Amino acid sequence: MTLYRAQMNEYHIPVLAEESLELLDIKPDGIYADLTFGGGGHSSLILSRLGKSGHLFSFDQDADAKANAATIHDSRFTFIESNFRFMRGQLRLHGVEHVDGVFADLGVSSHHFDTPERGFSFRYDAPLDMRMNRRGGISAADVVNTYDTTRLTDVFGRWGELQTPYKIANCIERARMVAPIATVENLIEAVVPCTPAKDRSGFLSKLFQAIRIEVNGEMRALEMALEQSLRVLRPGGRLVVISYHSLEDRLVKNFMRSGNFEGKTTKDFYGNVSSPFEIITRKAVTPSEHEIADNPRSRSAKLRAAIKSDTDIN
């Protein structure tokens, strides 16, 4: 039984698994980087397509993911305990300058949402943490208790795309003047005056997303990983990314289209759009109705893929 089969009901069901593998177009002797190991589902599938001389480097900063990786005993596999923002440097430490494919399944795993003590979900009362890497860094409690209203407003508006970020920041400011906001329930109670009765779940999802992104520096980490993909991919190498919300998808789409995060394209002398990538997925690939029925959390997934142009490697 592969790790994929063993873990899929325990940790995280790999989303768009076969579609991802098809778009990666695995070469048996290729070198690949999976930037989000998690429960190992996608990594195991990549390994199943590699030959004896192929190799997979999988990244994850989470201790639970490291424990999952320890169950894979394969000389073609190397687990790197690191945030994927350090992809290029970590690969070079392992003697690898270039790879044939980079894959990332962004967002939070089902395991994290379903582990109450991690504080990622508003469904369970727990300490406000939300750190992917629990060895250091700020926690969600640090954000809601120490950021001033201006900074909180920016977090809620930018990362949560909430409609009334200033009102939410004020609710939190008033609540923490009475007592620190230390738990999930404390936070939910603090924002009750701002919570719409008709869409409580949607509101809290966006609120928790905003805080989680801030705690883990997710958007900057994604930018860094995408920029580094241009340096580590060989010409003809493939970049395949699954995103789960509009902020991630916009970055990925713009970068594949233009090589920058604003989506600004340039044209050559003949008027042709100049881009470091050839886009494979003109429209994002989304889960089938059958997959959504089996795994409702896949509903918001969008898969995009592109090929590194046949130019000199940076």
Description:
The protein is of the alpha/beta class and 314 residues long. It has two domains: 3-111 and 218-308, Rossmann fold, CATH 3.40.50.150; 119-216, Putative methyltransferase TM0872, insert domain (DNA polymerase, domain 1, Orthogonal Bundle), CATH 1.10.150. 41% of the residues lie in helices and 14% in strands. The protein has 14 helices and nine strands. It has helices spanning 3-7, 17-24, 41-49, 63-69, 87-93, 110-113, 140-146, 149-159, 165-178, 184-190, 200-216, 218-232, 246-258, 289-294, and strands at residues 31-34, 55-59, 77-80, 99-105, 233-243, 266-267, 273-274, 277-279, 302-308. Residues 1-9 have low confidence and may be disordered.
Summarize the topology:
Layout: H1 3-7, H2 17-24, E1 31-34, H3 41-49, E2 55-59, H4 63-69, E3 77-80, H5 87-93, E4 99-105, H6 110-113, H7 140-146, H8 149-159, H9 165-178, H10 184-190, H11 200-216, H12 218-232, E5 233-243, H13 246-258, E6 266-267, E7 273-274, E8 277-279, H14 289-294, E9 302-308
Parallel strand pairs: 1-2, 1-4, 2-3, 4-5
Antiparallel strand pairs: 5-9, 6-7, 8-9
Gap from first CA to last CA: 40 Å
Strand order of the largest sheet: 3-2-1-4-5-9-8
As a percent range, the share of strand residues is 5-15%
Count of DSSP E strands? 9
